[in-house]
Amino acid sequence: MTEQIVEKLGLQPHPEGGYFKEIYRSEGVIKNDSLPVAIEGERNYATGIYFLLPSGKFSAFHRIKQDEIWHYYKGSAICLHIISPNGEYATQIVGNDILNGEQPQFVVKAGDWFAATVVDDNTYSLVGCTVAPGFDFDDFELAKREELLGSFSNLSDIIVQLTL
Length: 164
Hints:
Layout: H1 2-9, E1 12-13, E2 19-25, E3 29-30, E4 43-44, E5 47-54, E6 58-63, E7 67-75, E8 78-83, E9 89-94, E10 105-108, E11 113-118, E12 124-132, E13 141-142, H2 145-151, H3 156-161
Antiparallel strand pairs: 1-2, 2-5, 3-4, 5-12, 6-11, 6-13, 7-10, 7-12, 8-9, 8-11
């Protein structure tokens, strides 16, 4: 079924793992002088993508310069693995089993390192991600394993597991 959804939605491989397709990019833009110093150039107000991750695969640790809202759609719940800039590690399950602690939406804060895994075996997770100010690959940083280990050596097991 994963291949059929990838084809039907026109998803493409994502550099961090999984598949994605941008489905929304606002027409309006925010001028550079109104954005945080870390962001260079103009950005759209917001962007949105579909993101599909098959079981047994992972979305590698990465970070962006904006907040990112994850929205659960279909398949298994997805587990977000988050490392804050000060080294606090946390997980959040994004799914629809609300009574058991899952959240249908979750915000990853700008600057946090994060990765994702599918909770159940032999399936997939289809989610959406909304970024504001809008996403640009200039704001994307894929973690380098050795650098992340140098900063957070106490998290070596999860870093080795979820980096390329």
